[in-house]
Amino acid sequence: MTATQLTLIQIDNYGPWTVTPEPRREMDLQTLQSRLFADLAQFVGSRDGYVFFTRFDNMVAATNGLDRTDHALLQESIGNRYPVTISLGVGVDEVPIEALETATERVQDAGSAQSADRAEVLGGEFHEDSGDGDLRIAHFDVNDATGKYTDRLNEFDTFIEIEQGYASLMRYMREAHGALSFFVGGDNIIAICPDLSVEEYHDAIDHVAEEAGVQLKVGVGRGATAHEAGIGAKHALEDCRYEGTLVEFA
Amino acid sequence: MTATQLTLIQIDNYGPWTVTPEPRREMDLQTLQSRLFADLAQFVGSRDGYVFFTRFDNMVAATNGLDRTDHALLQESIGNRYPVTISLGVGVDEVPIEALETATERVQDAGSAQSADRAEVLGGEFHEDSGDGDLRIAHFDVNDATGKYTDRLNEFDTFIEIEQGYASLMRYMREAHGALSFFVGGDNIIAICPDLSVEEYHDAIDHVAEEAGVQLKVGVGRGATAHEAGIGAKHALEDCRYEGTLVEFA
Amino acid sequence: MTATQLTLIQIDNYGPWTVTPEPRREMDLQTLQSRLFADLAQFVGSRDGYVFFTRFDNMVAATNGLDRTDHALLQESIGNRYPVTISLGVGVDEVPIEALETATERVQDAGSAQSADRAEVLGGEFHEDSGDGDLRIAHFDVNDATGKYTDRLNEFDTFIEIEQGYASLMRYMREAHGALSFFVGGDNIIAICPDLSVEEYHDAIDHVAEEAGVQLKVGVGRGATAHEAGIGAKHALEDCRYEGTLVEFA
Amino acid sequence: MTATQLTLIQIDNYGPWTVTPEPRREMDLQTLQSRLFADLAQFVGSRDGYVFFTRFDNMVAATNGLDRTDHALLQESIGNRYPVTISLGVGVDEVPIEALETATERVQDAGSAQSADRAEVLGGEFHEDSGDGDLRIAHFDVNDATGKYTDRLNEFDTFIEIEQGYASLMRYMREAHGALSFFVGGDNIIAICPDLSVEEYHDAIDHVAEEAGVQLKVGVGRGATAHEAGIGAKHALEDCRYEGTLVEFA
Ligand SMILES: Nc1nc2c(ncn2[C@@H]2O[C@H](COP(=O)(O)OP(=O)(O)OP(=O)(O)O)[C@@H](O)[C@H]2O)c(=O)[nH]1
Ligand SMILES: Nc1nc2c(ncn2[C@@H]2O[C@H](COP(=O)(O)OP(=O)(O)OP(=O)(O)O)[C@@H](O)[C@H]2O)c(=O)[nH]1
Ligand SMILES: Nc1nc2c(ncn2[C@@H]2O[C@H](COP(=O)(O)OP(=O)(O)OP(=O)(O)O)[C@@H](O)[C@H]2O)c(=O)[nH]1
Ligand SMILES: Nc1nc2c(ncn2[C@@H]2O[C@H](COP(=O)(O)OP(=O)(O)OP(=O)(O)O)[C@@H](O)[C@H]2O)c(=O)[nH]1
Ligand SMILES: [Ca+2]
Ligand SMILES: [Ca+2]
Ligand SMILES: [Ca+2]
Ligand SMILES: [Ca+2]
């Protein structure tokens, strides 16, 4: 049984800041957002968590193994180095979407995302005793994306195809299983999942093939942390490549 | 009449690199990708262009005002500081998708995205005489995203809504007008467009409201560069906010 | 009694790389070096260590609290994201210079800094049981640098003054006590020290005043980690400011 | 005859900020400082200027080729992405130290480095008509630093040697020629110089050998920009290596 600890990272009062006193240069905002994400990826990632850029002003992280002290330090360090601050909400549950529901509420309960009074919220519960099988990570990838799309279509039309596949998978996994799927670049999608069977992964792949016409394969891993589960998933995906299969478990 | 210069930025042979000799830590890949994007955003952005992260291994930039020398310098500088190199293809056209078609072909013609032999391609044509009205940028934004989604739903369900709005808009704008729409974080979408009328923007907004149930507004700007057009679009979007309108031109 | 764990971080075969195939753009090298240092500062710093830029191709870190696994992860992560790799040597001793001697030897024994065959060395011993008083950090600072130099002289002449003060202190502390003093920007010098008395700090300050004509003050802290000792030192330095004294212990 | 344009970059009111409300984590300050420098190195460097970290809170740049608009954009972009702002002063002169004198005064005249009221000063004069020989860059380097120091001594004792060589050179070049010498990492020193003869460079090298016991060699280049002059200097330094000489002009 999984026990996923998820953290919502929300930039405080970011919307108003982007247009005060005048709308800021878009490329500076893009730089700020992507570097903030990179810093989170290093902090969380070097502690074996995963963080996803999601909407950039709101990011989601799988943080099993990071406790309250780690979260407080992250918050302090970002506050020391950026012109904006972040709020953090944390939740734990067997079903990922439920963990995120809790995490989000902890931040929402302290005030609006666009409240000038609310800053650096740190709320929620942490998963104390970690277990080997707490996390399931599924790493999905498009079959032969290079040959079918990248080398053949213009980049925007390739992007539309990949994006449709992603949109289809994200909705399906969320509705069917309460799983959270994130696009991570290229043709890759990483999903934080509860326990699912081989058949359930085949169904997801079939669904995307039918709805969006995109052929996925998937490697699935488990571990005490996102990195452990995720690196297992990557190796399983390599197995798919060598075996020519669509679903492999680590 | 617009004359959009677009650059395709493609990381050379990136797929194989990510799994050689073993699959690399995902958070290191995420850090690499987002910092590479941030560096491009600073280089291109400080020359008044716009760059979009798209799939991160393939990025699209509006580069009016940047010539071949600028592109060569960017390529050299990335090669000096990253463990990967980039290829660049450039195209110019009245219709954005046509410019990108050309840009992509320049890179594709030199070899596959996953060819070990192909590196640091720099091909294409540049827009020589820039004119005031060469670029049209439309900055779309969701109405009251904070009140309707961010402060109310869990972050993943918010993300699904925003993402559906984006998927709907990106397809519509591409098919109806050959325009390229990019999600830039939060609830914001920036589109590189040809000349379009107020009605055509209203139609796009209506389409997204019907198909995805997401209410957009849009500010539209024009200029010799993406920044000029884009900052105009941002000011026009502020006009929408103050006037309570859905479409404003700078 | 102190037990300082020091790590030498050396970029592998960096000299040849900077001129292959042609001398690389200096500002790209500067960017690479300072970002590598920033990444080390975040990795080590968020685990309560301190790292100093020293010569940038060779950096020194106080790493009490970081074990072999942490060092291996740091090395892997840098290797994933930079065009260069790093070797790490670690030593522990009561006297800082002795710890560094050991740390350096571990790297030197594996081959030359400019050997194409030597890469990603990870050698040395780690301090297993950490104690409250393992580290002593002294934070030195110039009295009224703003009024005496920054606001009055041209920046280079200010720099010469500060730099002379630093050169004087670094030699004195190394020779008299085996302590390692690092310039950290502005008018600040941070020294990793063995146990020293108030008088010994006064002597150091007197020496610099006489030799270089620069008036320093110093706050001294102790702790199980560099951050703990260092933040104590910073508070002690604030005490100097409020009390008008030259040496304060946390 | 040279015409060097120098820019002083000063972080506004930085001292007080580092201790408000409490002393900030040193490694966050180090990260902030080195990333700010890296961003300046990219902005200035990609426009063929050079920037030196100096004291990090005050940096010096050779900015021939960058006009007032470039400086204003740099200032705006840093303000958009950092929790601190920067002031810029610019001066032009045949003698580098005179140019910096002017540049510094422009900032000093607007208020103290530690005044809460003074922010984002942008003052000074710009070199309008650039000429081929406006800049002289001398790239000094220690002979066989690897064999004599890095591979043999502990890193701190190596550092002391290099640092003594630097201290000696910086004072000599400033006093004898009004030239500004900056340590750039490893065993490298880059100097912004007026027109000097081969003999004058030999004298400088002799001085350092006698005073500090460090054997330097130097390549000298000229150009309309720092990069042009600097890349010439690097090639000339390679000539020293191949010819076994101590001074080479590009
Ligand atoms: N984030 C992330 N992206 C990856 C990873 N591996 C590959 N990619 C991306 O996926 C793109 C396509 O690479 P591949 O999936 O290897 O190529 P493909 O043509 O689809 O080939 P097959 O998947 O083997 O059928 C690359 O350019 C990367 O952007 C990974 O581990 N993480
Ligand atoms: N990239 C980018 N994102 C922005 C910009 N302005 C706002 N955002 C993002 O949009 C999010 C929502 O902000 P707003 O659009 O101001 O808020 P809202 O609740 O939708 O309110 P209205 O749009 O005024 O109805 C912010 O958190 C940012 O992520 C911008 O100029 N550029
Ligand atoms: N690295 C680092 N630098 C600091 C710190 N505090 C101040 N500085 C630097 O020191 C410079 C001078 O600041 P202060 O020391 O506060 O100013 P001062 O004029 O010398 O005044 P007093 O020290 O109070 O006499 C600042 O610009 C910073 O660069 C710190 O905690 N760490
Ligand atoms: N900033 C900078 N540093 C460099 C450059 N070239 C070399 N270095 C540094 O200098 C160090 C020593 O390299 P070298 O000077 O090639 O080595 P050496 O042993 O002194 O050999 P010789 O100079 O050839 O006698 C390297 O580790 C780098 O840190 C350069 O172009 N710029
Ligand atoms: Ca694939
Ligand atoms: Ca909005
Ligand atoms: Ca001071
Ligand atoms: Ca050398």
From TrEMBL, chains A, B, C, D:
Catalyzes the formation of 2-amino-5-formylamino-6-ribofuranosylamino-4(3H)-pyrimidinone ribonucleotide monophosphate and inorganic phosphate from GTP. Also has an independent pyrophosphate phosphohydrolase activity. It comes from the Archaea. Keywords: GTP-binding, Hydrolase, Nucleotide-binding. NCBIfam families: PRK02240.1. This is GTP cyclohydrolase III. It holds the Pfam family GCH_III. The keyword GTP-binding applies. Belongs to the archaeal-type GTP cyclohydrolase family. The gene is gch3. The keyword Nucleotide-binding applies. It is an enzyme of class 3 (hydrolase). It comes from Halorarum halophilum. Its EC number is 3.5.4.29. It catalyses: GTP + 3 H2O = 2-amino-5-formylamino-6-(5-phospho-D-ribosylamino)pyrimidin-4(3H)-one + 2 phosphate + 2 H(+). GO terms for molecular function: GTP binding; GTP cyclohydrolase IIa activity.
